[in-house]
Design goal:
The complex is a heterodimer of chains A (about 400) and B (about 280). Chain A has about 400 residues and is mainly α. Helix content of chain A is about 75%, strand content about 0%. In chain A, strands 1-2 form a two-stranded antiparallel ribbon. In chain A, helix 3 packs antiparallel against helix 7 (about 160-185), helix 4 (about 85-105) runs antiparallel to helix 13 (about 360-390) and helix 8 (about 195-225) packs antiparallel against helix 12 (about 315-345). Chain B has helices at about 1-15, 20-25, 35-55, 75-85, 115, 130-135, 150-155, 180-185, 225, 235-240, 255-265, and strands spanning about 60-65, 110-115, 140, 160, 170, 190-195, 215-220, 245-250, 280. A three-stranded mixed beta sheet of chain B has the order 8-1-9. The longest helix of chain B has 18 residues, at about 35-55. Classes of the chains: A mainly alpha (about 400), B alpha+beta (about 280).
């Protein structure tokens, strides 16, 4: 089926060439980092996780988000999502590849990465995260391929295919839960030490993942004659709205616990993220504009969706606008604020702000480009198969 | 003092018996300090000691830092820190202007204000009236060698682990993958990461201790390599005359450290995290 990715319009090839260029740039920057050391990043002794790990965290959510398509179709037999589930699975594959690349970019001795397998340590959440991520990746490769092959041959997928799909559903939940457990079990990081971290991660994932899929659907509708169907889009928007509202509710609960209890440790990170944290006469606030942008985008996205629903005006432009606002809002919140906000006050009560370096940003861009490259090729194959069947 | 020396030999014996000194010794076999005869002697002492210590539930090494002896004497703190830096080839990483590079710093034992060291007991708004002593003096900070170490719990490769024989939280620099999860988990900020090759920044090279490479985490090891030779930790030795740092077995009621703990009021850093730190302070 791979040959289907080799036929395309100049726009398709141009897009892939652009991504490839970014990938090459990222690889070059990574080689610099590999040869010199992690000092080329903006991270340091006090703030020792940065852009890489925060984006890894966000992308685990994007991967898990595909669940919102797979679950209604396979468990509730919601047929409208039939054409979309394959997109959820292929997005999950690309997102997890990005996650694994971000982890590899973040570790100081990548050559020793296999030590995680050679010396398995069940008490480490990072070990379990590796297990569930690799498991979910494998499941999605199997499911995606089985379903697509069946579609191509115009037969029902084999029974054992359904087995893997069923297993992939709890796996989707587990990848983001275990990723949250990386954070929420650490004794002195107050902002992360919250039982709502995992539920919050899941809620934001179920908004961010489907948002990205709807954006891709709109692009494919314009360039590849692939129509997801009005009802499917409408239903997905409902799901995104609920997930985004639940996420916002969870964030509000964090605010309540912090500010009503008045426990300084529980307020520090929120104070830093949203208002600026004062320490020794200096106010630290470099993420404040980003967090408020996130808040505004979240509500703007919800407003766009609400207008679409109330006025029954579902246009592609509005769908893309609402989804882009939601996706970016959650990216800023979880892909930046969550990790950096939790680390701003170190265990010795000192404050360190984080500024990523250009090298780090290019490595990250390269990884994103790799993910988009993969998703483009996989979606191209999926759509081509669909067209072939229709023809 | 004689008694003190004897208890050290015991610890040393147990350490050597367990073969903890071995990887270091193998690595630096050219070093005369690790001559075989000495190792054998330590191992023999260990046989006796192991028999004796069975009465307790194993050795758990700990430290009492008597800050009263450091007050008004910042050079004493510096002496302690310098002795550790020298013994462990700790680099002094500087930026282009020759200033300490806070971002890439490596620290095993260092000094910091009370407000930083005892962060959970110090909230800017509430301690409006700190005592003069607290306001004017710096305090020593190092790995607490916790009985319930959060860093060991999170490490995905067992590159940091508890030595069963003596409770030291040790590091395997050759297994560490540099994920820095232990730095996230440590509530005391005791761990440092080699953000770049540390070797060019070592001012005085000590051939008896391995240097580290970039990309791995390191921290205080209670001088396990010195204990294996029957020596005291470098920091303890540096202020031996004043007995400002007492080191020994927390599980042995007869040990000097237990006598000090029974006599003096001591505090630990953030005990509320449940880590059970093995470093105590008299303030």
């Amino acid at each position: 089926m791979i040959e289907k990715a080799l036929k395309g319009t100049p726009i398709y090839w141009g897009w892939l060439a652009l991504l490839l260029a970014l990938m090459v740039l990222g690889a070059a920057c990574y080689i610099r980092q590999f040869l010199f050391g992690m000092a080329l990043t903006g991270m340091g002794r006090d703030l020792s996780w940065g852009l890489y790990i925060s984006q890894f965290t966000f992308l685990v959510g994007v991967a898990a988000g595909g669940l919102m398509l797979v679950l209604p179709f396979y468990i509730h037999d919601y047929k409208v999502f039939g054409r979309l589930t394959i997109l959820g699975e292929f997005l999950a594959i690309s997102a997890i590849v990005m996650c694994l690349m971000f982890v590899m970019a973040d570790i100081g001795q990548p050559i020793r990465a296999l030590n995680m397998i050679l010396h398995p340590t069940p008490n480490s959440m990072l070990f379990w995260d590796m297990v569930v991520l690799v498991g979910y990746l494998t499941l999605n490769i199997i499911c995606g391929w089985v379903i697509l092959t069946a579609e191509k041959k115009e037969v029902k997928p084999p029974k054992w295919g359904y087995f893997f799909v069923s297993v992939s559903i709890p796996f989707a939940v587990s990848i983001h839960t275990v990723t949250a457990m990386l954070y929420c079990g650490l004794p002195s990081r107050h902002f992360w030490l919250s039982a709502i971290t995992a539920p919050r991660f899941l809620a934001s994932a179920f908004a961010a993942g489907p948002s990205l899929i709807l954006i891709f659907c709109a692009i494919m509708k314009k360039f590849a004659h692939f129509d997801a169907g009005k009802e499917a889009v409408n239903k997905l928007i409902t799901i995104i709205m609920y997930a985004a509202i639940i996420n916002a509710f969870f964030v509000c609960m964090e605010f309540f616990v912090g500010y009503y209890s008045n426990v300084p440790g529980h307020m520090h990170s929120l104070e830093y993220l949203f208002f600026g944290l004062e320490h020794d006469g200096h106010v630290y606030n470099n993420l404040v504009p980003i967090m408020w942008t996130s808040v505004i985008m979240c509500f703007a996205g919800l407003a766009v969706f609400a207008y679409m629903k109330l006025a029954k005006a579902q246009t592609d432009t509005l769908v893309v606008l609402g989804c882009a606002l939601t996706f970016l809002s959650l990216f800023l919140d979880k892909g930046l604020g969550f990790v950096l906000g939790g680390l701003v006050v170190n265990p010795l009560n000192q404050i360190t702000e984080y500024y990523p370096t250009l090298n780090e940003i290019f490595v990250s861009t390269g990884i994103w480009a790799t993910g988009f490259f993969l998703v483009t090729v996989l979606y191209k194959i999926a759509v081509a198969v669909e067209h072939e069947v229709e023809a | 003092m004689d008694n003190n020396r004897r208890s050290f030999l015991k610890i040393a014996g147990i350490t050597a018996l367990a073969g903890i000194g071995a990887p270091v010794a193998a690595h630096l076999s050219s070093s005369p300090a690790f001559a075989n005869s000495e190792n054998n002697a330590a191992a023999q002492t260990g046989h006796e000691a192991a028999g004796e210590s069975e009465k307790h539930s194993g050795v758990r090494l700990g430290m009492v830092i008597d800050m009263r002896k450091f007050y008004g004497q910042p050079d004493m703190l510096d002496k302690v820190i310098a002795s550790c830096n020298k013994a462990h080839n700790i680099p002094h990483i500087v930026d282009g202007n020759g200033k300490t590079d806070r971002k890439s710093e490596i620290k095993w034992i260092w000094k910091a204000p009370y407000a930083d060291v005892f962060a959970d007991q110090w909230v800017e708004q509430s301690v409006a009236h700190p005592s003069k002593t607290i306001a004017e003096n710096d305090f020593l900070v190092l790995c607490n060698h916790c009985n319930q170490p959060a860093c060991v719990r999170v490490c995905p490769t067992k590159a940091t682990f508890v030595l069963k024989e003596n409770g030291i939280v040790a590091m395997d620099y050759h297994r560490c993958i540099g994920c820095r999860f232990c730095m996230m988990a440590c509530p005391y900020g005791a761990r440092s990461f080699n953000w770049k090759d540390p070797r060019p920044y070592i001012s005085e090279y000590n051939p008896n201790f391995p240097t580290r490479m970039r990309g791995v985490v390191e921290k205080c090891t209670f001088c396990e390599e010195r204990l294996a030779l029957g020596q005291q930790p470098a920091c303890v030795e540096a202020v031996q005359d004043s007995n400002a740092i007492v080191f020994g077995d927390l599980n042995n009621p007869e040990s000097q450290i237990r006598q000090v703990l029974a006599r003096e009021n001591t505090i630990q850093r953030s005990p509320a995290y449940g880590t059970q730190p093995s470093v105590f302070y008299i303030v």
